[in-house]
Amino acid sequence: MDATTGIERRADGIVESGSFDPTEFADELERAPHNHELGTSLWFENERVRVFEVRLDPGERGPFHIHDRTYFWTVVEPGRGLQHLADGTYVVRDYRLGETKFLVHSEDKALIHDLENVGSTTLRFVTVELRDPATAP
User: Is the pTM value of this prediction over 0.70?
Assistant: First the structure.
């Protein structure tokens, strides 16, 4: 239990999870399999990697997008985020400074989600997508 907020916090930072009505985001979810914009700005791209910044001020939300390649992210400004997943579930979690996740995805095992800053500070990540040079556009 967090002494400041009184909210139960799991080791993975999750403070809440549940389900939502995906029809609220139907248009975005329809476009998501073709949305490979993984952040708010693209910093670098070549045949091996794409590097994005994700910067969301309080109340801002990034649209649904797809992860169909291996990638990792690192938190550079901590905060609280809400992710809606394409299966109709959501999770709210606290992201800690320096926290890094390495996630393996493929076309067959893709992840579709959004991210909303539901905290009171700017939430910021650096996301690096690894590209297969043989399949890069």
Answer: yes
